[in-house]
Amino acid sequence: MDWIRKDLLGIKGLSKEEILFILETAESFKEISLREIKKVPTLRGKTIITLFYEPSTRTRTSFEIAAKRLSADTINISASTSSYVKGETLKDTAKNLESMKPDVIVIRHSMPGAPHMLAGLVDSSVVNGGDGAHEHPTQALLDLFTIKEKKGRVDGLKIVIIGDIIHSRVARSNILALRHFDTDVVCCGPPTMIPPKLEELGVRVEYNMNRAVEDADVIMMLRIQKERGGVSYIPSIREYSTIYGLKATHLERAKKDVIIMHPGPINRGVEITDEVADGPYSVILDQVENGVAVRMGILYLLTGRVS
Ligand code: CP
What we know:
single chain, four-stranded parallel β-sheet, 9 strands
């Protein structure tokens, strides 16, 4: 197929064919990161800007590495060191950046819909690097890539998502992506952290952690989103950790070859114990490795799109 979209703003609206096409493209780029010289000339002459209004370690760095491995020029802008602190609006920032003719702008913003607004203002391609509690499409794509890589398939799997679902853009984008496959997706967390009518997205809701992880093929843990007020939704971190923290005893209830995922950053000892996060079932660092390949694939498709 040909890629025709200018922007990647969310999983919502993507077809299964488009999702699989991104994953196939990412697959073809993965081995570049394993070479001694990790660079190909594919995006020479292209300019990628990362514009981050919220903190990031994995997403921003992996976009920069992905762009550099494809020989693109990269510019990183953090809100704290930009003219945002002097009061410049996102619209003015967008128009000024556009004047410098970048090919792709990757934006992370606390305001849901900020990437969509930016995409309407600029000719450059826009990638959503996470917008509030709305979507984090590249995270869901790298999660899907990792599930496919480790399990050999997505169809037929029981995938359990546990934690602060209501504030999680990662959960939302994953649920939207997994809907395209024949999966049993179970969301688990305290009742206050489960959004109303979540089942309408095609998932099951289970409040009991032991029942949720029973025969799971994939367990995806989420961080409490303190920056979005997540802590006020639970009586205490200690109680949350006791009831909803993933421990080695839970793994005995899951499939023998269960994989443990987490988008990071991890709150060790809160949503997951060290033993599980660093244990043999954990694929958390594989997710990070695959993030580079997936973001290489996305930058390649957007800059080479058929118009
Ligand atoms: N998973 C993720 O988005 O991590 P960062 O916040 O470090 O980018």
